[in-house]
């Protein structure tokens, strides 16, 4: 159990490319942190820097107060679950789980005891003599986790561990990982590009964009008060509707057809990004804020997603309604956007207003 | 990018044996060959003098060298073409049949393991003008065969021996190439109304052409350099100069004729030929990898 | 098959059988010849059916001095061939394995220079640098020795390339997992790498064993002492007898013995060999 602190940790490649400018992050003992972002945002690089598989060129990484920058991965007391699982194909499940302990000179009986304990926890006891190729995808995933768990490390690192599983198994393993982590109480750093996975697993999320931590916070904080349009668009599915708009104290103008007068005066005056989540829009008969022309409808049974356009505005809009709805294509729907659900960002600085 | 271990001395220890052997037995001799090519040395190695390009000039004015080049090209071309054609026919047939593929493969690939010199001796006897069953049969149908005196006969003989050994290699590659062609492609062509022969020319052959080109290069390299044993164990370059390929001439001029400078100059030219072929081969392999 | 055309299948089998017969013809004749006494060859054609002199020929060939200027029996030459083939095969595999390991899994100064030096050996087959190589080996006092037979042939760019290829196809995450599990370079090599590429090694062994066993020019040059003659190179000495009284039966028996071990290896390890050969060139 350990606290992990990243103090202005950064990475610059020899060719001058600044993959990670500087990340500050304090992970509390036992916390489950998810690094999330689109592909290429540097989340895997950051995780591998913590693991010791990539060098840290700036800043300092400490685990339990010890500086780790120059330590070998094996000496950091961490364990990692890889995207491809990276199971040793020629070793049995037992061999895979025991290898790290063996290399550390743990005696045979202890190894057998530890592997047996972890195997029963993960439901692998019957599979210990099998080779990885004789296992299903879900079982391999478990073995990869088991290999990390037997070492009883200070920190768990997960690099998109569920991306090779089918959708159903992914949900199941997601729940299992969360339960295991709670039970073991091991500090965990988890990388994913899937925001649903991120939201459901994390105590706190780190949203990365081009190597910068855009926002760090609990899933609901990020959902309710995204700090930037990037976070706003990334968290939540379907994505928040974002429009370029003008705000002048009393009115918000979008394109040339939408003008909404504000309930209370706003201090800001100028170009903004206006955001409203699909689930916060409501259909109305009167007092509409604006109208959309229906372009496509996706009926999912429990809910309906309606894609439309506001005349004269280039950005598309999504509306999420519960239950079945069958509006006709090219018909108009009048909508209200409750002002307490608005998200306003400065168009220049991209910061929340 | 591959993952690496951070170590300074270990890699040097690991690579040292290979480097040492390479330097001592490959690069040093090669360097000496290059050096020697510019000197004229007496056969006993007592004295030598720098002669510049004279060895090369002499070589390029020597009709027997041109003869050797011509012989080498005729030999290599014949070996490569006949080896490829026969192997392709056999591989196509083997790919067609459903049963017994493994048996045929076993019965066809074993000559790969036979040394070129032994292949030479075996065919030498089959064609022996006095006793060889094939020579006698040829005589019976009215062909006068004698590789001891007739240069073309000798050439045909070494081509047969060299090809015989190489068919197995080509066969394996063609069979693998054929088996790698997706079944659905052939089926699509069949549905489009192409018969077996048409399918072979329109679909199979074009898809097989990278393999064929690769084998062509390999076979030429084989015929150039690895057939020394075939020649030495049978014709020894004769009768006259009719089967004296370049590699055999280097050996003979150096070890038998003791013309060290001339032999070295030939070595240098041969190295350049191998260099060019290696580059072609390597480029080809690289291109294939990118697919 | 797409169409069911029995005659095409028949033609395929027929062509293959003709091919098999043509390929086997020399061996047939050799085997038959070895079962007749030497005198049988003086009178016209080589017999095409087995005689009754087999035991005598084979016994004489294996255990008596080969004659025709070769003073050691064939079994002794087979032993020499075996020593040479095994030394070359194991030697090549060993030094290529570790040098490819260095090139793929380490970064060190002049790494690409080393790679190119090794690569250049591809361009320098022994046939084109016969004389100077002979001189080097003579200077090192290695003529007429097993070391001289094997050592100069064990540097091979081909084997290094194959292992490099095999190493590069090993997923990076597997190496990283081993590092996290506390395996250093030596442990990783023995615990993970070798078990993973053991089929490549076996396939390469077949190819290299054949390469070593079939060496002809090199032993011809550096052995003048009968005690170091290898079988393949001696066949030529047996054939080239001046007076013309060639003992075809014993030469054919020796030839069969000379090709038997490599042929047995190829057929015995056929699956592995075929896979290794075809994959190696891809």
Question: Could you characterize what this model shows?
Answer:
The complex is a heterotrimer of chains A (about 350), B (about 290) and C (about 280). Chain A has eight helices and 20 strands. Chain A has a six-stranded mixed β-sheet with strand order 6-7-8-3-9-10, sandwiched between helices. Chain A has a five-stranded antiparallel β-sheet with strand order 13-12-11-14-20. Chain A has a five-stranded antiparallel β-sheet with strand order 15-19-16-17-18, with no helix packed on it. Chain A has helices at about 45-50, 95-105, 110-120, 135-150, 165-185, 195-200, 220-225, 230-235; strands spanning about 5-10, 20-25, 30-35, 60-65, 65, 80, 155-160, 185-190, 205-210, 210-215, 240-250, 250-255, 260, 270-275, 280-285, 290-300, 305-310, 315-320, 330-335, 345. With about 350 residues, chain A is an alpha+beta fold. Chain A folds into two domains: about 5-235, P-loop containing nucleotide triphosphate hydrolases (Rossmann fold, 3-Layer(aba) Sandwich); about 240-345, OB fold (Dihydrolipoamide Acetyltransferase, E2P) (Beta Barrel), CATH 2.40.50.140. By secondary structure, chain B is mainly alpha-helical. Chain B has a single domain (about 60-290), classed as MetI-like (MetI-like fold), CATH 1.10.3720. In chain B, about 75% of the residues lie in helices and about 0% in strands. Chain B has a two-stranded antiparallel ribbon with strand order 1-2. The longest helix of chain B is centred in the N-terminal third of the chain and has 34 residues, at about 65-95. Chain B is globular and about 75 Å long. Chain C is mainly α and about 280 residues long. Chain C has one domain (about 70-280): MetI-like fold (Orthogonal Bundle), CATH 1.10.3720.10. Chain C has 14 helices and two strands; from the N terminus they run H-H-E-E-H-H-H-H-H-H-H-H-H-H-H-H. Classes of the chains: A alpha+beta (about 350), B mainly alpha (about 290), C mainly alpha (about 280). At the B-C interface, helix 1, helix 3, helix 4, helix 5 and helix 7 of B face helix 1, helix 3, helix 4, helix 5 and helix 7 of C.
